[in-house]
Amino acid sequence: MQISCAPRSDSLTLSFILLMTLTAQFILMAVSFPISDLLTEKPLLYIDNAMHWYQVRLAVDLAASGVAAGYDPFFAAGYLGGVTYNISARLPALIAVIIGPSVDVALLWKLYVFGLSLLAPLCPPLAARVLRASPVCTAAVALLGLLLWWTCYFQWFYTAGMVSFVAACYFSMLYAAWMWQYLMGKGSTRTLLGLGFAAGVILFFHPCSPIPIIAVIAWMTLLHWQDLPKWRIGVVLLVVPAISLSLNAVWITPILSSGMYWGDVHTKEMPHLGEVDLNFLWQELLGRWTGRVWGSRIYPPIAILAFLGVLGSDSSQSRRLWASWLLAGISVEILRSIGGDFFWIARMEPYRFSPVGYLLMVAPAGRGLEWAASAVYRAIAARRRLAVCAVVVLLLAACFGFLIRDTMREVLPGNHARIGPAPPYVREVGPKSRWVIEWIKSNTDQSARILFETAQGRFHDGAHIAGYVADLADREMIGGIYPHHHFAGFWDGMVFGRPIKTLETATFRHYLDLYNIGWIIAFSQPSRNYLATAPNVKLASEFEGLAAYHVNRPFSFFHLGDGRVTARQHNRIDLDGLSGTEVIVRYHFLPGLKSRPAARIEPVFLEDDPVPFIRILNPPQSISIFVEGLAPRYDSTIQNQVSSRVKP
After folding, report:
1. DSSP letter (8 states) at residue 478
2. CB of 433 within 8 A of CB of 43?
3. Residue 574: which pLDDT band, with cuts at 50, 70 and 90?
4. Measuring CA to CA, how many Å separate 385 from each of 312, 375, 378, 392?
5. SS (H, E, C) 408-458
6. Does the CA dihedral 114-119-122-127 come out positive or negative?
7. Residue 75 carries which DSSP code?
8. Bridging pattern class, strands 449-452 and 477-478
9. Distance of CA 623 to the CA centre of its chain
10. Rounded to whole angstroms, how far apart are CA atoms 26 and 47?
C-alpha cells in the first residue's frame, strides 16, 4: 500500500507527533495496567477478559487435536468453539495456536491488550497526515484521539475486554484515509490489492469494523463525485470486498450458518440491543451519562470543533473533505440510535457505536482546533478583539483541563467516579472466584456436571469467570462461558430459557437428570429462594452471597444404555463399557461429529432442548467421539431427521 510522500521536515514532525503520542499512552498504560504486572502470572480477568482467556485456551487445545473449531464438552453439555467461532479474541487465539501448546495464555492476552492499546491511538494522526493535514492539525487530531480513548465509552470497552473492537475502530480511521487516497487517483494495482488485504485484516480483528469505513467512504464519494475517477469506485467495490471476504470466509461461513450471533436470543434476553431512541443522539452529544445514554465531556468540544473545521476550511475541496468525516460521524451516531430497528444492525449491538462517530469527527475537529488557534493568534497579533480571544483561550483551556483531569481519574486509583474500573486492571484473582474454584475441587468430581449461575452484572469479582473456573477445576458446567448463548444456560435467575421461579418441581427434576447435574452454585435471590425448597437439593456451603448445593440423585452421563465416561477434553469424549443395540449419551450432537472406531451416530432430541443429543447405534465397547470439520447450524434439517423426541 502506498502513502503519498511528505517533505522531509513534515516526516520528522510526524515522527515527533507519533513519538509523543506513543510516549503519553505508554505512561498512562504503564500506571493503570500496571506495567509491573505485564509479565507476571496474574491474569487479566475483568468482565469479558476472563471469557476471552478461556476462548484462547480452547483454541490452543483444539489446535493440538488438529482442528480450528471443535467440540467443547465443558459447557452447555457440549457446543462448538474455536478460532472460527471467536468474535473478539480471534487474533490472539490465532497467535496462541501458532505458538503452540507451550503458550502462556494469561501472558499472551495481557501482551495483546497492552500492545493494541499502544498502537491504536497512533492511527488518528497517521490518518490526518494521509489526508495531507498540516502538522498543527495532525497534532490536534493526535491529542483528541488520545483523550477520546480515556474519557468516553471506549475506556469501558477496552477495560472490559473489548480491546479488539476499540482497536478495529481506530484502525478503520486510518484505513478509510488510505482508501480515499486510492479513490482520488493515487496508487497502483498494488495499492488496490493492499487495500483488499488490509480490509481482510481489520475485518479479522472485529466484524463491526466495516461500519465506520463505509460511512466515511460513502460521504466522501458523495461529496466528491465530480472529482473521482469513476472506474476506481467500481474496482474498489468489486476487488476490496472480494479479497476481504475471501480471507475471512473460514470464520464468516460457520458463524453465519451456525446462527450463534444472528438468532433472536440477544434481543429477547438483552433488550437494550434493540433499543431505538433518537434522544440518544442529542443526550450523548451533550455529554450525559445516565441509563442507556453514554455521553462524555469530550463529545461537545469534538462536535463544535468539527463544525469549525468545516466552516473554517480555506478551500472548497478542503471543506468537502472535512465535511465528509463530520457527516460520517453523525451518520454513525444516528445508526447507534436507530440501528436496533434493523435485524442485521441489531445483531452488531448498536450501542457499541456510541463513541465511534465522535472518533470519526476527530479528523475535522483537529482542523477546527487549528483554525481556532490560528484565528486567536492573528487577532492577538493585530491587537483586535483581545477580550474575545481571552474568552476563547480560557474556554479551550478549561475544556482540555477537564478532559485531562478525567483522563487522570481513569489512570490513578481512588474512590471517585470513573468510566472503567479502578486501577490496577491486572490484579489477584478475587475472593469469590478463589472460593468457587476451591469448593469445586474439594467437593465435586467428574461424575456429574455443575449447574453454575453466571451473571450479566459480573457478580463474581467483576468478571465472567465460568471459563476460568472450569479450566482450573477441570469440571463440566451447565451454562455457558457467557450468558444468553445456550438453552442449557443459567444466569441471573434464568435457567433453561425461563425464570427459575416458574419451573415446576417435576420439570426441574427432569432437567437435573437430562444434564446429569450433581451440584449447583447460585447467587441470585430468585435462584436461592427456589433451590431452598427444591426436593433432593441440599445447601452445602455459602460465601459472600454465593451458595453451593449438592443434588441427591444417581449420577450418569447415559440417558439410555450403560457405560462410563473415562476421559474428556477439548474435542474428545472417551466412552467405555458400552453394551446393547444403542446408547444415548447426555452430550449434545453436533453436525460433523465423528467417532473412532467408526460407529453410527445420530441426533436425538430430549425434552425441549433445541439441540439434539448423541445416539450411538450398535456401539463398540470403547469409543472416542470428536468433531471433524466445520458444522452448520441446528435447524429444521436436523429436526426432520428425527421422527419424535425421546422422553425420560
Report:
1. E
2. no
3. very high
4. 18, 11, 10, 11
5. HHHHCCCCCCCCCCCCCCCCCCCHHHHHHHHHHHHHCCCCCEEEECECCCC
6. negative
7. B
8. parallel
9. 37
10. 23
Q: What is the pLDDT of residues 267-320, one digit of tens each?
A: 455 555 667 788 888 899 998 888 788 899 999 999 999 999 999 888 888 999
Q: What is the mean pLDDT of residues 541-551?
A: 95
| Nearest CA among 596, 477, 591 for reference residue 65 | 596
517-522 and 449-452: which strand pairing? parallel
Report the share of the chain in percent with pLDDT over 70.
90
* Residue partners of 27: CB distance under 8 A and separation at least 6: none
Written as one letter, the residue type at 200 is G
The angle that helices 90-99 and 189-205 make with each other, rounded to 10 degrees, is: 100
Decide if 362 contacts 302 (C-beta within 8 A).
Answer: yes
What's the CA angle centered on 469, arms 465 and 472, to 5 degrees?
Answer: 140
Nearest to 25 by CA among 107, 114, 108, 156: 114
Which residue(s) pair with 450 in the sheet? 477, 519
**Cβ neighbourhood burial of 98 (10 Å; 0-12, 13-18, 19+):** exposed
The rounded distance, in Å, linking the Cα atoms of 201 and 187 is 20
Give me 528's grid cell: 436461592
d(CA 354, CA 177) in angstroms, rounded, equals: 21
Q: What is the DSSP string of 189-219?
A: HHHHHHHHHHHHHHHHH-TTTHHHHHHHHHH
Name residue 551's beta-bridge partners: 537
Where are the alpha helices (H) located in 224-339, listed in sequence order?
A: 230-258, 265-269, 279-285, 299-311, 316-338
Contacts of 14 (CB under 8 A, 6+ apart): 6, 125, 126, 129, 135, 138
Helix (H) or strand (E) holding 289: strand 289-290
pLDDT over threshold 60, residue 264: no
Set of cell numbers at residue 178: 488510505
Q: For the chain, what's the residue count? A: 648
